[in-house]
Predict the structure of 12959_t:CDS:1.
Amino acid sequence: MKVTKGAGLQPAMDWLIAHPGELEDEPIGQTLGERPAGESIEGEIQDGEQTAQSLQCNDCQKLLRDASAAQVHATRTGHVNFSESTTAIKPLTEEEKQAKLLELKQRLAEKRELRTIQDKEEEKTRERMRRQSGKELTEAKTQMEEKEMQKLLMAKKKEKEDDKIAKAKIKAQIEADKKERAAKREAAKQAVQAQKQEEAAAEAAALAASKKEYTETRLQIRSPTGAPITQTFQATDTLQIVYDLVSQHVTGPFQLMMTFPRKVFGENEMQKTLKDLDLVPSAVLAVKSL
């Protein structure tokens, strides 16, 4: 049996027939599979050895039927120290089974109730979070709208200020243009006045020079009823002399006048000279009947 490694009696006999004399020195008992006194076979329960009947939790000393029960116990209690035990757990009676089943049902019901409570609490928590999130979102939206409104108001305010500045610039430009045009008109007016004054002075100077040059004047006097009277007078003659001459040809009261520029001579001009009345070197007079 030793040679055949415990394959059985028939293989051992076959080996002995095929190998005669090779085991002469060995005891026959050993050849046939017998063991010496005190030698043990592997796997054989010796005196004092007992088979493990259960598992024991070293943390709480509770006996467990098998590894599955130990795993459930570890999950429920958190205990992790287990060892094999030779103590056998007697089978449960029918009453104990019913009690265990009832206890299991109660535990399941408690777990369901606990789970329901937990679900409700989780739902409440989610609802609070949802409301808080909605509130925060609303506040953020409100703040954003307020910021946008503030930006819009600032933009409108800036636009009004820009419009005000632009209008002020336009108004200032208009005033400047008015002042410039007024200054130009005033300058032109002054230039015209200066030119007129210069022309008047030149004309007066020329007239004065011409008056000094002429000592006589030729007058043409137009009568409404007769032919014109043409006569030469001295520049120093008075208008009364001319009036007396015309009265010889006109009946009734009358006045002498100039047609251009229109001027009627009255009693105040009768003693003035023809030179003083600007009737030199020639002039046209008309007779105005009264």
